[in-house]
Design brief:
heterodimer, A: alpha/beta, 9-stranded mixed sheet, two-stranded antiparallel ribbon, 17 helices, B: mainly alpha, two-stranded antiparallel sheet, 13 helices, MetI-like (chain B), transmembrane (chain B), cell membrane (chain B), transport (chain B)
Amino acid sequence: MKRLRWMSGVLAAGLALAAAGCGGGDKAEDDNGPVSLRMTVWTANKDQLALFDQIAADYKSTHPNVTVKFDALPFDSYTTALTTQVAGGNPPDLAWIFEKDAPDFVSSGALTDLTPTLKGTAGYDYDDLAPATTKLWTAGDKLYGYPFSTSPFVVFYNADMLTKAGAQTPDQLVAANQWTWTAAEQAAAKVPAAEPGKFGLVIRDFDYKVWDNLASLWAGYGAAPWSADGKTCQFTSQPMIDAMTFLHNAVYTDKAMPPPGTAADFFAGDSAMTVTQISRAATLKDAKFKWGVAPLPAGPAGAQQLFGQAGIGAFGKGKHPQAAADFLAFFSNPANSAKLAQYFPPPRTSLLNAASLKAANPLLTAEQLDSVVVNGIKNGAVKASHLGYAKIDEAVRAAMDTYYQPGADVPAALAGVCKAVEPLLSTGS
Amino acid sequence: MSVSTASAADTQGGGRGHRPPPGRGRRDHRMTARRRDAVAGYLFVAPQLLGWAAFVGWPVVAVVWYSLHSWNLLAGTFDWAGLANYRQLAHDPALGAVLRATLFFSVGLVVLNLALALLLAVLLNQRLRGTAVFRTIFFSPVVVSLVAWAIVSGTLLQGTGGINALLSKVGITGPNWLHEPGAALIAVIVTQTIKNVGLNMVLFLAALQGVPEELYEAAALDGASRWRTFWRITFPLITPTVLLTSIITVVGSLQVFAPIQVLTAGGPGNSTNVLVYDLYKQGFVAHDLSYASTLGVLLFVIVLALTAIQWQMRKKWVVNE
């Protein structure tokens, strides 16, 4: 009997401990003493981290008690690592957040409302933030994330490889008003024949797993994975069937794109064209080939542009939520936004012009900046997101594998995707 | 308590000149020694028990507790959900595919691993030149890092990788191993089997070498064929090792994670999405730790049931049980 009581005591203590652990969260500490802030980021780029450190050092000169550390987490498992830190009661003070996770973070109540701090900071010019860029990070009239990077999807191309294959470059096709997905695919299909082992077109980071990167193709077809209210699956819509039939032919019939399981890195010279975000332009600094950049090709729905976003949020359960918001106000003020613009296209209307961006982007010409960056942000749409994105993402990924087969029945495969994802969309879980 | 009382009585009794009955004193003394031994024993096992309680016992209890809650990691809420997660489990549209993948994977791995290990052990138990070299070769994957093994295998299994290059030399067009449902499952099973077959092989070798030589001599005198000798003498005598290896391999097959994460990430479709990998995805990709805990409970019950069945069935086919 005694032993039983002893065991139940241990069990109860353990469960209480677990429940306490689940609650997580530390009480806010005094911001007047030494303050150490931690911001998680997914970049490991030395130049970018050096710029962040420089901004933090500038902030310390006026706020000597505040030290900011940037914690680079691996890109692939970034959200998992971040969520685990939050769940473990050790959230960072500030964090980069992917646009696809924005609804979950914004609605969770984990982030601090930044509006009063940003609006109340002298010289911040809050109204300069383009509404299209803050929409995803806003609930009601409260801003829960600062969209520090609004990066349009573009097509980078290797002019040497395309010329060798006897294909026109995207810029030539743009000039001839023939820059369409079909023309891009036809040019791409010539590459493997001219240079065995090389590929024509790669949708970067898609890799037959990260299906949402196909949004760049879907934009031109007017296709979207789900309806605007997020409640209805649209993988079975005609525009989506057309876009996915085009992609299937490009991979399995025309061999314009590498098949599943084949790595082809544009920046290493493995492919002639790649669809990716303009923020990758810095990777081409030491490129050994002649390259160019063009906007996304037009599809049946015309020339639609798309951008991805990354926001910065301040965690309410961090030790210094107000100090974190204050630092973010400094990090994203007009002067620092101009500095960050060389890597991260800013959400500020005043900076969204070729002249301002040119100073920060020496690799791109004013024409390129105007046609792909300024036009992309002003006229583009943001990539799709949804509440409970992680589960939806996984359900679509598993269901899409039926489509990635040489003889796939495209409409049937896409119907399978809707069957898998509809329960998750309707519950909005 | 009783020890100190007895000691006091002894002292008092001695003082009055009345000695206690000899039997009682000896019994008290024995009790003391036994208790001291028990305390020492508990102290010896305490570090192991504490470690087990902290890293096995407690997590098992916690997983059951979590499975009865709804845990939103971002919002930091942890609310009682009763059996809601178990109802979700019953209606999970992917669960059938996950359990099917788990069954095919485990059966494939266990059968291939044990058959190959036994075959290799029998071959390498011959007194021939060079067997030591082959034993080392077959055992060497066991000591290679699991993830490194999977990465190298993944490179070889690519559509244009080494395996298909070899197959094309003999006129066979190999499949895109990791991207076709059936081929992917086979690829993962074979990769994992080659990685671990050496361990079971060594266990079988030790068992084979423990079979008394005179039994073989007697069988030879009776004119038994090698096939008959193996099934009538060798195999029955190594059944305790067969039981051990089958339990280890079945439990191990239900815990395989690294090769699936590196090679297929559960795909194509759900063809290699075994239960333990689905649990990982629910918990650490979809951030639903409550549902992942529910899958953990299901996995625990399956492992427990399979081990219990194997343990019960041993009486029917294991020698000396």
